[in-house]
Structures are given as C-alpha cells and as structure tokens.
Amino acid sequence: MLAIIAKSKIATKISIQIMDAFVAMRKYIANNNYGERLNYIETKVIEHDAKFDQVFSKLENEKNTHIFFEGKFLMLTLY
User: Fold this and answer.
1) Strand locations in 1-79 (E)
2) Which has more pLDDT, 25 or 63?
3) Looking at the whole model, is its pTM more than 0.85?
C-alpha cells in the first residue's frame, strides 16, 4: 500500500520487505507445531478440570473430612 501512495523505489522496496516478513512469520508458525501444542495444553486443562471437579464434589458431599498432610491427620469442616 505504501508503494501505491508514495510511488517511489524506496516505498516499493519497503513494501516488499514487509510482505517478506509476514511470509517468514507464517512459515515459522507453521513449522513449529503450535497447533499441536495448543491442542495438547487444552486437553490437559480439560483433564485437570475434571479431576478438580471430582475432588471438590467429594469434599462437598462430606461435612467433616480428614486430610492427611505432612504426617498428620487434619480435620476439615466445610460450611
């Protein structure tokens, strides 16, 4: 767009460099498996959410719960 407005050799050269930069970024993103990484992270988050839900539901079902922590039994009362 700069080359169209300015109509100079420098503007044309800069426009080409900008387009080359975008092409290089697209190739870099495509070659580094970001899509697979994001899918893996999303799967793990979903798994952890399910595990947390199980823990919280068990805690909610029992008013008095014993927790083993650092060699001691602790009594946890939920209100």
Assistant:
1) 64-69, 72-77
2) 25
3) no
